[in-house]
Prior knowledge:
Two copies of one chain form a homodimer. By secondary structure, chain A is an alpha+beta fold.
Amino acid sequence: MSLPRPMLDALAELLPAEDLLTEAGDCWTYGYDNSKRHAPPDAVAFPREHDQIVALVRLCNEHRVPITPRGRGTGTTGATVPLRGGLVLSLERMDRIIRVDPDNRLLIAQPGVTNLAVQQAAAEHGFFWPPDPTSAAACTLGGNLAYNSAGPRAVKYGTPRENTLGLRAVTGAGDSIRTGVMTTKGVVGYDLTRLIIGSEGTLAIITEAALKLTPKPAAKRTLQAVYADMTAAAHAVAAIMAQPVVPCALEFIDGAAIEMIRSYSKAELPAAAGALLMIEVDGAPASLDEAVGEVMRAADVEGCLSAKVAGSQQEVEALWATRKALSPALRTVAPKKINEDVVVPVSHIPSLIDGLRTLGRRHDITIVNFGHAGNGNIHVNLLIDPDDPRQAAAAEACLQEVFELVLSLEGTLSGEHGIGLVKRDFVSLEIDAATLALMRGIKHEFDPLGLLNPDKALPGAAT
Amino acid sequence: MSLPRPMLDALAELLPAEDLLTEAGDCWTYGYDNSKRHAPPDAVAFPREHDQIVALVRLCNEHRVPITPRGRGTGTTGATVPLRGGLVLSLERMDRIIRVDPDNRLLIAQPGVTNLAVQQAAAEHGFFWPPDPTSAAACTLGGNLAYNSAGPRAVKYGTPRENTLGLRAVTGAGDSIRTGVMTTKGVVGYDLTRLIIGSEGTLAIITEAALKLTPKPAAKRTLQAVYADMTAAAHAVAAIMAQPVVPCALEFIDGAAIEMIRSYSKAELPAAAGALLMIEVDGAPASLDEAVGEVMRAADVEGCLSAKVAGSQQEVEALWATRKALSPALRTVAPKKINEDVVVPVSHIPSLIDGLRTLGRRHDITIVNFGHAGNGNIHVNLLIDPDDPRQAAAAEACLQEVFELVLSLEGTLSGEHGIGLVKRDFVSLEIDAATLALMRGIKHEFDPLGLLNPDKALPGAAT
Lengths: 463, 463
């Protein structure tokens, strides 16, 4: 589509020239996200205020123009790719931290602020905000809320849904709403805060968020445990999660990933290593010895080959180097790999890993797994070249079976990456028709004309 | 209303005689809850299975008969009083614990099981479910979820919204839905789990819930700190909440409440006591000394008259005796007192208490405050006799000003009791018209005919 002249004129009235792009070449970049998918927007607006967003959304309603809100485009599912063109709302210039209130453990910020900036503002007062995606330095708060993005710390401290008090937002109809409270308890009205979090910008555009802060623990220890195979490691995960000391990170790497690291980096690992856990425990300094001891005892299941606690910051970095060697190694082997982030209950991780091995063999695809074991959130990497039609077809067939396996193990298709456009055809494998119909009805209440990020999050008939 | 003959016949087909009441005298009791409000139901059904509820809701849709789901009636807001008669669905016979899965830290149960039974089943495996309302021995899981009921532990461990993974439910239209996941992460589809939690049975009837369990801490210490006045105590609360050791209970009692205890019980308190904090700290035994030390240091603000840690179980009981003496004392003075459960950000507690004192003087009403200070959740007790028209009028005027004060302090009208029918006229003080309209739209999607618990939770035009 291209925008009607009256709409272009109205945009130019609403926004100063430096906050609006309408030339195709200028707009091009804002058609991408980190899924590498692309569709060109017709215009890109950079609002700086809530009221501008209200006006922009109402204008789009008047002209029936789709609106795609976005942050910095670090998402991996194409959720911010403007499939139908129209207006992209880039929220990157709404990047103010409005209030840091340590007495009340809260921070209020606009959506365009980066996760890192939130952490820095909180840290000045001895606090942090738990969600910690790998892209923290670049990704925005609005994106974190749109996807319910988590990271390693979620195992102890939860996701954005557990760490957000309230929102200010603009619905798809252009109405200003406020959700939630400024307190850690509140039961007046329905919980629209959590409904909007994770809805991938399909219900409302968040213009302000009140975040719940957590005091920074005084100390942290890092452990690495190596296992003969993934089954042993998964039993250790279940044992660790069944005792009272909850680690603040419980990451795992499977045997194929260890092979990968061994081939492509100098990180040292025992020869028989079939799986590896990276564990972090935080808390008050005096309690850490005991806490680490409890975790070490739980980690020491049959098949545990070695377990060690880093004694210095250098050792911590050496331990994490193993984990960090993985992504470059995977990119070397398969630059366009498929990375899914399925979740299963912790005790089903061994069955998942076994099943994935079988599927990899059957479809002749190398599958490498790592991820947030404490949440059962496994990053499943299919090392294929999607530009090779045979491999692409094999991957498609394999992916369908991966998702069926995950669901048969009481799991879910995504733990933190979301649906966007790349997974939407699989959603109805997980969510039944009646529940999906209800979600579509809710979408309709927020966005009667279906203009807000159409074709995302929910399957086919969604808009 | 009275039920049409074909509906009564259909009910008798759907349910065995022992699971159905239709005689007015038999039904009477099921028209009450702990608000002491009453309206007589036309029939009471005691379903035992999800599919029976589907059939009952569809039958009510067919005959346009209101449905009021209820647990054990311990709610205080009239949320289960069947204002328009019709069918009461008493879920007390759906009381099975379906699965306890310690490896995955989850428990699946039906709504009629008591909170206590959930705790006992979890405790067998070393776990607990954090929500702990005072009525735990009698109140049901379904009620806890309907109100998002919390209790003292919420300050550290959160409310049902932070401790529930997924639900099975029947919408007002009679559709079976499943929400959420069996894992601690999941971002597929919209978050209907939290939307239904706290919706007071106005959106859907919960028939099964997957609860997130937490490992029981190995040890706990109880502290009591006494302050010259409420301002000093509130500063202590803010200081305690700003350091890393989060107490598992942080309760307070104001000066008027202390006077009350002194007059009506033998609990010992220093003469100059203007406010009191009861604090509990849990964790691993080795860490407790340090943790208690941190909390004691934070609690020791200007105006702290004394602070002590209970050295034995008897001492713990002695400390809690003070807190527990309060309710009987209040009941002695004002059997029909009004008890609100407002919330303000922690640092605004002193302003709230000061403002309440002024309001009490202006309206000639004794106001006694206690509650969950760590969450800013204050139980405001207006000691009046509602049967005295002058006092009732004063209370009404005072209550309106209490709520305005709370909102001016960035607070919310209810932290855990909910809205029910008694607070619904005040909801629009807190939630703006556009947001309320959206909530009503969502209600309509779940319950197109407006039959599910009508006239509750949302104000006037809600159904």
